[in-house]
Records
---
Amino acid sequence: MIEIKDLHKSYKMGSNSLHVLKGINFSCEAGELVAIMGSSGSGKSTLLNILGMLDEADSGEYTLDGVPIKDLSETKAANYRNKFLGFVFQSFNLINYKSAMENVALPLYYQRVPRKERQEKSLKYLERVGLREWATHLPSELSGGQKQRVAIARAMAAEPKVLLADEPTGALDSTTSYEVMDLIQKINDEGNTILVVTHEPDIAEMCKRVIHLKDGVIVEDKKVEQVRASQYVK
Amino acid sequence: MFNKDRWREIIEVLSSNVGRTLLTAFGVCWGIFILITLLAAGKGFENGIRKDFGDIATNTMFMWTRSTTKPFEGLPKGRSFEFKTNDVQAIWDNVPNLKYISPRNQIGGFRGGGNVVRGIRIGAYDVYGDYPEIIKQDPMTVTSGRFINYNDIEQKRKVAIIGQGVQSELYDKGEEVLGSYIKIRGINFLVIGTYKKNNNDGDGEEAQKQIFVPFTSFSQAFNRGEDVGWMAITAHDGSSISQLKENIIEVMRKRHKVHPEDKRAIGYFDLYEQFNRVESLFFGLKAIAYLVGIMVLLSGIIGVSNIMLIVVKERTKEIGIRRALGEQPISIKKQILMESIFLTIISGMVGIIFGALLIYGINSLLDSVGPVDMFMNPSVSVGVVSGALMILMISGLLAGFIPAQSAIRVRPIEALRTE
């Protein structure tokens, strides 16, 4: 599903440049649930941004589902993001003057799905995250966990090939974190490929594979025995 | 363009901060209001002045003789001379593009004594000997009977058309005018018509107190022989009398042995030139109205542009989210531009409506207090209004352009970075 070869990325900070990613090689099959771990500054968010086409690598190859990702114009990148990727952010990033349903429908809108169908689909996905009766509520009327579930519904609504989650539980307490992870695991159970950036070991253990980044290189890449989050959820 | 969701968003964004939107809208509203009001005021002034000109054919000159100021071909200076009736044909033969040439004779006028008598009533009026064409150069409405025709000219009929002012002084109310006789300098003329003139300037009353008789009868009755007092010459619409007048005067100089450089021997009044002077005044007024209006509008537009920039800044993160979800940059740009155009046009229309209300108010005020000198019926045409809307559309586009550009310049990753 994802193929990365010798990925480099550096940021220019005035006169000196900061080499963040120093040759990442990584591949991931469809249906995997991968945790990317590392301390802050290890380059994990940069990696995720490059995977999410929000940022471009300086060198290296990136292939997503057989499509080489390079030399993207903003328009093309927007198209690919819309078709291939779903994003879940630490700070939820819902649009606060739109209802939960409208937030979920947003990526479908960019795919020019007709209005009726958009509504049906977004209700379906809200149902799946257990928030159907909250469909007309604004984000400000939802709790943190609920917001993140809306965000996940939004990421899934466009039926992306890969779901990218950047610290999805970073702003949540442990109970709601487990609820969110339970949801992520269930989505993964349905065969979706998910990449989770986290620095919390217990969250990483709930994935099937853990990658450790340190100073811009992968220092460890192992399969783990998945801990089901459902056991913590009442 | 007619995308329901996009419109909903525009409304949502603009109504999210109503006070700010209204203040911004006010700038544009005010600008267009000033523009419309100024143009209407200019138009009102123009209408007033045009009314003073009446329906007179403006492409016209008047020409008369004075005494020569230079000796020429053995003739002394200070010699007086008269135009003759055959000069008319000479002008026709030598100067193209003329529409009417009316030779005229006149008695009365300035310091004219009591020259017209009817029964026991007496009056002092201008009496003109004219050709039928004069009614096209100095328009009047024949209110009863008829005007002079060529039979009158050929048969030298002693007939007269009198103004309403003459009628009210020489006749009782309700008295039959047509078929009666008036005595002009002791000679009876049959009254065959009455007229009314439409112009409204200082001579308004005087213009109703004239008497027109056939040119030939006039010459015979008052002993003018072949003399022509003055001429009214009108050019065809395509050419201007101001350009033709030199030719005409030159023809006259030759025929009357006037020194070619004797500027003062032949007097003239070029109505077209005067009219053009006023026309350029109107043009200047209009230009000033547009300039001032657009300048005021411009400051309103800069206001819109500023607010749109702030809106974009405020929504940086939202724009980042949208782009992460796959919204195309062009779509974001369109959105910002449409918000800006929408805001500009709506507020501009409000300005136009207020301007129209003001014009309406002034008009009904003018109607109720009666006519005012040099001001009448201020108005703006549909053309001006649609022009104003065009200006608004363009300015909305301009106002939104920089903010829209800055909205898509921010990369999604930067926009998403939590502060």
---
Amino acid sequence: MALALGFSTLLTGLVVHWSITIVGALVLGYAALGYLHQLPSMHQLEGYLLRTPRGRHALGGTSVRKMGMWMFLFSEILFFTGLIGGALALRVRADGWPGPGEVLNVPLTAANTFILICSSVTMVEALRGAQMGNARHMRLFLLLTMALGIVFVSIQAKEYMLLFFEEGLRPGSGLYGSTFYIQTGFHGGHVTAGIVALAYVNYRAWKGGYTREAHEGIELMGLYWHFVDVVWIFLFTIVYLI
Amino acid sequence: MMTGDAAAVATAAGGPGMAAHAPGDFHTPHWVYIAVFAALAVLTVLELSVNSTVSGKSLQVAALVSLMMAKALLVVLYYMHVRYESRVLRLAIFMPFFAAVFFTAVVMI
């Protein structure tokens, strides 16, 4: 948490004022030192996290792995906050900014948004299949999720090519181009990373690695995938519609 | 009754690191997943129609941000199962969202 806070403060400082950058760097450095100091005793940390002095489960029943995924997602929230907040800060100070649909292809991206929403449904269906102990259901929907992710990235690549070569919108062609590519590009990178992770999860599922009793890997994969979907919900509205 | 495949997956040994579920396991009703999907599709269509039906930039932005937040909340609460998570985790999730809104407000002013 402190690492994420330090990193995001540092990013905010780059946009706002150098003094905030220094505060962010100090928090980040302090948090990194603390983390390195704790590394040799991570197993002790896990035992500490799971039990309070009164013997209660400190995380209210949440497993350490799931909490770890959420911690990662917290840092991701702040990472995308830096990108989106930075772009908004530049936008409100810019002299002119193209309106919705003037440069970007909204219908094409709306279709892509629908594809990503569909992939979230297929992901929860895969988890449901694992919970029911229905391997066929689980494998089918895991495969569908990965396929929909590939379709999403392919359409985004096509959109980039149209914008780059036909519309002349390039990262170096101004604030609008640079903020557009950096926000959607980092999101596309996250989807691509998700596809790679899904390929591994699919492989494990076909090998019988997930059971009705033990399928936390699919749940954690789902958390990441839905997070990427949530980021796109924000980006689609802010970048394409407002 | 499970299929042969299902029985195989249910009895197969879990792989390394595939820990069993902690207490507080959830089983969201199937209709909730489908209802959320339908709501997301409808909200997206509404978003697309805002700029042509609502007049005034401020109203358009307010409507779009409201629809965006509704969609994000649906995914977080039901697809990421935050609604069924422990109070500790729900409180922890609040913090980065607070920080996100705070930092965005700081850079916008």
